[in-house]
């Protein structure tokens, strides 16, 4: 028996919030973490990088595990590990221990990245899957709009460690929600027996599919551009532009609002023009807007309001690119949806982690490295879309 569409979207959205909350809520605390633990800015940024590396790589294990054992047992494991690691982060005595514990957080959070996408594929394909994905993203939008504000409100009176304690409590609540309200969507007769060669065979099948790889890279470059923003925004906004943690949180929420508002139109645009066309044109819009932003900043126009407006424009296009490309990448791989979602998520997170490393190395406290990184992502995504989606009108018949 299928859950009501919106009830399923609410449950999956709340579960999927776990990973973003661990990023968004502690972003305003990055300068305080560096100061409190006596660490350089780069070391504080590495707490993001270690999280994303684990978040990406470990999806490779959760996806096949969810195809073999059902969707819920791996999800339980990930949420329990995430809760314990969050408590550890709150108690971390050094920046090195915090980096390690953030890595363990990422190991647990990987479960709520790939498994909800596989659950969506268990229920729907085509435009219905896009509609459910974008509705889930509407629920997830609570995180980037409210989490930084909550984090700022906690940091001022209680310090940065309180953020991780709240994250632990919220994750525990998500675990209870998964146990009590989420049905098992992969029945026993449809599960894949554990065979190492079968798992690597599925990876080989996916990596030899140019459309799957292309769509995964397009979505991954969109995510990488956002991760470049995550790695630098708190320092750029507070040090270069002089914003308070609360003002930073409001500016961050505005950019997130652009992404999640436009994502709600992805399914309807897909019905009207075709999902492949949506990816092609939205990728072109992202490339043009990101290149324009870089050129404006390079010319010396670095006013804060202008930068926020240009980032908002880029994120509006990303709101169409990312969910549509995610759904399309799974269309032809229903029998191994968990593995396909996991491999796609892993590749995308690794692109994001690479973006954090590169942007952190070249970051000089000004907006130019950030806007250059986003422009590189936009132009690369456009090139890949033209190479891999040329002449393709559809991938599967929606039903």
From TrEMBL:
Keyword set, alphabetical order: Cell inner membrane, Cell membrane, Membrane, Transmembrane, Transmembrane helix, Transport
One Pfam short name: MFS_1
Residues of the Major facilitator superfamily (MFS) profile domain: 1-399
Listed CDD domains: MFS_MdfA_MDR_like
Transmembrane segment boundaries: 46-63, 75-93, 99-120, 132-156, 162-182, 211-236, 248-271, 278-298, 304-328, 340-363, 369-389
Membrane-related topology note: Multi-pass membrane protein
InterPro entries in the record: Efflux_drug-R_Bcr/CmlA, MFS, MFS_dom, MFS_trans_sf
Location, primary (coarse class): membrane
Stored Gene3D superfamilies: Multidrug resistance protein D (1.20.1720.10)
Source species, domain of life: Bacteria
Entry keyword Iron: no
Subcellular location(s) per record: Cell inner membrane; Cell membrane
Family: Belongs to the major facilitator superfamily. Bcr/CmlA family.
NCBIfam families reported in the protein's UniProt record: efflux_Bcr_CflA (TIGR00710)
Name of the featured protein: Bcr/CflA family efflux transporter
Species this chain originates from: Microbulbifer echini
Organism phylogeny: Bacteria, Pseudomonadati, Pseudomonadota, Gammaproteobacteria, Cellvibrionales
């Amino acid at each position: 028996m299928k859950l009501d569409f919106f009830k399923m979207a609410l449950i999956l959205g709340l579960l999927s919030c776990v990973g973003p909350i661990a990023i968004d809520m502690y972003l305003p605390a990055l300068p305080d973490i560096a100061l409190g633990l006596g660490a350089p800015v780069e070391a504080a940024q590495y707490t993001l990088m270690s999280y994303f590396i684990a978040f990406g790589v470990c999806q490779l294990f959760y996806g096949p595990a969810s195809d073999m054992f059902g969707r819920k047992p791996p999800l339980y494991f990930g949420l329990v590990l995430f809760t314990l690691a969050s408590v550890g982060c709150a108690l971390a005595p050094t920046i090195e221990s915090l980096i390690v514990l953030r890595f363990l957080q990422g190991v647990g959070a990987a479960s709520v990245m790939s498994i909800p996408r596989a659950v969506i594929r268990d229920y729907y394909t085509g435009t219905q899957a896009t509609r459910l994905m974008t509705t889930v993203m509407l629920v997830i939008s609570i995180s980037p709009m409210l989490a930084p504000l909550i984090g700022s409100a906690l940091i001022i009176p209680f310090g940065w460690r309180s953020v991780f304690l709240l994250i632990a409590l919220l994750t525990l609540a998500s675990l209870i929600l998964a146990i009590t309200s989420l049905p098992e969507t992969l029945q026993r007769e449809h599960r894949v027996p554990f065979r190492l060669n079968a798992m690597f065979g599925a990876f080989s099948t996916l990596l030899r599919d140019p459309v799957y790889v292309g769509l995964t890279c397009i979505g991954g470059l969109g995510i990488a551009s956002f991760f470049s923003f995550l790695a630098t925004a708190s320092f750029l906004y507070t040090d270069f532009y002089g914003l308070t943690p609360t003002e930073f949180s409001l500016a961050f929420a505005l950019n997130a609002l652009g992404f999640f508002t436009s994502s709600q139109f992805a399914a309807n645009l897909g019905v009207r023009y075709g999902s492949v066309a949506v990816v092609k044109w939205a990728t072109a819009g992202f490339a043009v807007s990101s290149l324009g932003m870089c050129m404006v900043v390079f010319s010396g126009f670095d006013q804060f309001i202008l930068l926020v407006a240009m980032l908002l424009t880029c994120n509006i296009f990303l709101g169409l690119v990312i969910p549509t490309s995610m759904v399309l990448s799974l269309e032809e791989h229903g029998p191994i949806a968990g593995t396909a979602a996991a491999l796609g998520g892993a590749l995308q997170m690794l692109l994001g982690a690479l973006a954090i490393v590169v942007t952190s190395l070249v970051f000089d406290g000004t907006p130019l490295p950030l806007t250059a990184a986003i422009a590189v992502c936009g132009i690369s995504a456009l090139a890949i879309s033209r190479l891999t989606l040329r002449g393709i009108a559809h991938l599967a018949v929606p039903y």
